[in-house]
Design goal:
Blueprint lengths: L8 H48 L4 H23 L3 H18 L4 H18 L4 H19 L3 H19 L1 H11 L6 H8 L11 H7 L2
Helix pairs in contact: 1-2, 1-3, 2-3, 2-4, 3-4, 3-5, 4-5, 4-6, 5-6, 5-7, 6-7, 6-8
């Protein structure tokens, strides 16, 4: 039997170098993810306070919430256009902030959910962004906010998904299918909502043996 080979000095050094490289990458990724979480939290706070303060200053919260939602989404897209990236990343935080800001002043959260995803899809399409991913991030933000404020998650999710699919429908069937596919699994009811928004294929009629037997006199 051959004796077990012991690692040489160079092999040990290479192994330690690789180990250090892995540790450095790990620490870097952890730091980056922590930074992303902090940025997302800041966006949520900014949008929430801006929306609630704007609506508090208005005498018509219901009407103004629609305008504020549209303005906030447009402002988000304009900001990401200027820096060249970040729309998909920021959409969830912006949607979450919108829902929480409207909730703070007793506004219509359900309506805001639909408006948020609708405008997000429209603006994403306008600038050529990934409509499906923007829709998913917006829906995720709406659901997360609704859960935190103690709202009806299922109902709000249905409205949010319906708004996204409705906006995608104005773009075309390809956009609808892309949005539907990426939203499947967001909530349990998404399949029903998505299916209802898609064109129905023509029914195929098949006569089985039992049906033929029933028709015989």
């Amino acid at each position: 039997m051959s004796e077990a080979q012991t690692p040489t000095t160079s092999e040990t050094s290479a192994g330690e170098t690789m180990g250090r490289a892995g540790s450095q990458v790990k620490e870097g990724i952890i730091g980056s993810l922590k930074g992303i979480n902090e940025i997302e939290a800041e966006i949520v706070s900014l949008v929430r306070s801006t929306v609630s303060n704007t609506l508090k200053a208005s005498q018509a919260v219901a009407n103004e919430s629609i305008n504020v939602t549209k303005d906030v989404i447009k402002g988000t897209v304009n900001a990401t256009e200027e820096v060249g990236t970040g729309l998909i990343l920021s959409t969830k935080s912006v949607a979450k902030g919108l829902i929480m800001g409207v909730s703070d002043v007793g506004g219509d959260v359900l309506n805001t959910a639909g408006q948020t995803t609708r405008h997000a899809v429209n603006e994403a399409a306008r600038v050529g962004a990934d409509v499906a991913m923007v829709a998913r991030r917006a829906v995720d933000g709406v659901i997360e906010a609704t859960r935190e404020i103690g709202g009806n998650v299922d109902e709000t999710a249905k409205v949010a998904i319906g708004g996204a699919i409705e906006a995608a429908g104005a773009i075309g069937n390809t956009a609808v299918r892309a949005v539907r596919d990426v939203l499947v699994g967001a909530v349990e009811a998404v399949k029903d909502v998505a299916s209802a928004a898609l064109p129905k294929p023509p029914p195929t009629h098949k006569v089985g043996d039992r049906e033929r037997a029933d028709r015989q006199p």
